[in-house]
Amino acid sequence: MDHDDFRACLISMGYDLGEAEFARTMALVDPNSQGTISFQSFIDFMTRETADTDTAEQVIASFRILASDKSYILADELLRELPPEQAQYCIKRMPAYKGPGAVPGALDYTSFSSALYGESDL
């Protein structure tokens, strides 16, 4: 859906967003400013909005989507899918993936996500 349809949808659900808050929301659902919000981005946004807090499993599931269902993610995928500062944060902190099917430059989003939520150590 386009940005106007997304805004109308949010308003119909009771969200009263000012311009600045809507701009921040758009940065989440359309981080590459393509002008459209995918169904998955909409579902991810609504899941975040209706949940009390994210869990490591939710973050891992989000990275798995960005990684096209691979067990690892590459820096170029992060750079393509996330805002630059978020991508760089992840790239600098994700350990190398050493599991099955590892390729040069593969990053371990599972360990990273678990460490963010205090479920493991990096």
UniProtKB/TrEMBL annotation:
What domain of life? Answer: Eukaryota
Q: What is this protein called?
A: Actinin alpha 2
| Gene expressing this chain | ACTN2_1
